[in-house]
Amino acid sequence: MTDLFDALEPPQVPLAERMRPQTLDEVAGQAHLLGPGKPLRLAFESRRPHSMILWGPPGVGKTTLARLMARGFDAEFVALSAVFSGVKEIREAIQQAQAAKARGRHTILFVDEVHRFNKAQQDAFLPYVEQGLVTFIGATTENPSFEVNSALLSRAAVYVLESLDHDAMARLFERAHAIACPRLGFDEDARERLIGFADGDARRLMNLIEQVQVAAETAEVDPVSAAFVDQALSRNLRRFDKGGEAFYDQISALHKSVRGSDPDASLYWLCRMLDGGADPLYLGRRLIRMAVEDIGLADPRALEIALNACHTYERLGSPEGELALAQATIFMACAAKSNAAYKAYNAARAFVARDGSRPVPLHLRNAPTKLMKALDYGKAYRYAHDEPEAYAAGENYLPEGMQPPGWYQPTPRGLEGKIGQKLAWLRELDRHAREGGKQDARRTPPGGEASREVPASKGTPGEERINAGGDDPS
């Protein structure tokens, strides 16, 4: 049995570990932090470590930089992962730092995924950071403003690391190729496909190269083509953590692209999120929100289309149902825009929240009993359908003493332009009624006869309702 184990080859160190930079100059990318005169370069050159948070996506060098700092500052390096560690491991790390101090050596305490520690666990580091027992370096893929407590954040500088760009990834590919599989050829398209799949993540690129190398050796393929890369690798999922920073950045980009009337950008972000594994119905709910917040009454069909897209997806599932979401996205990007209803609602909510409980005017109250009628509930109420033009000109529907607030201000875009014309005409009727004027104003509404009633839905994108009654295609 011993002979058998002796005959086995030792496990190979992963390529990502073999490729880990040994000097600052070998670090890929991050020129904004490591270039001449930049913050981390100056920290290395001064040989004066300070506590910091390294914030950036996976595979961009956070752990590598912490290790290089320990080496550059001739310090002990103690690493914790917040995924696997708790208070017990924190205590043990502090004990190691105290033992190192007794030997005359400083300790760099590196905490990976620091955002996964709760507030109490993060607070446990504070006294030792303040005493100078350890230099704290935390690594996180999430926004420290939200995920790291303020006490720890105030004692550490925050450095933002960026995804590696194409040139940096291409240089890494050449180095990894030379180290891992120098005799295996790669077509240019295969090389580009691997770099694209890695999505700015150096560790992921190393892992993909190893996977393709094993697959190529097994299948006796040389050189590797783009088609072979597609066959060898499982479906690529673009990087984001559902519920994480990148996730909300992308949904924000989708919402703002729709609001900005850019159908191509809107489709791009929709597809990025679908490709990244986002729940299509979550995206559908966001489209519904866009329809009511950013399009509103400029084109009420947007809400209809967004709701129908969600129902279609529920009926068909993926991938067929995703086309309905894409169609809704394009429609809303092209539709006229108005946030007038959204602003009016927010203003009304804010007013009601701070205002008192004003009584309902008597003439608007319901009067189902004789007693209520005797108390003048509903007295002098004017039934609008019995009035000329089905409008009780001059009537008041607000509580007594409350001035018309003017919360809803229609834009001139799309259908809302016609709504604005009709409201202006109705306000003119009110003015005439209050001044005791004649009823002739009823015969000549601003904008002509059609302005008396809001027009029914009609037309197609590019025709009346996408830019109905307005010059602004928005």
Structure notes:
The chain is elongated. A five-stranded parallel sheet has the order 2-3-4-1-5, sandwiched between helices. Helix 12 (about 190-200) crosses helix 13, helix 15 packs antiparallel against helix 16 (about 265-275) and helix 15 crosses helix 17 (about 280-295). The chain has about 475 residues and is mainly alpha-helical. The chain is about 50% helix and about 5% strand.
The poorly predicted ranges are 1-10, 438-443, 454-474
How many helical stretches?
Answer: 22
Quaternary organisation of the protein chains: single chain
| Main structural class | mainly alpha
Element layout with pairings:
Elements: H1 2-7, H2 15-18, H3 31-34, H4 39-46, E1 52-55, H5 62-72, E2 76-81, H6 87-102, E3 107-112, H7 119-123, H8 126-131, E4 134-140, H9 144-147, H10 150-153, E5 157-160, H11 166-180, H12 188-198, H13 202-219, H14 226-232, H15 245-259, H16 263-275, H17 280-295, H18 301-316, H19 320-334, H20 340-354, H21 370-374, H22 414-434
Parallel strand pairs: 1-4, 1-5, 2-3, 3-4
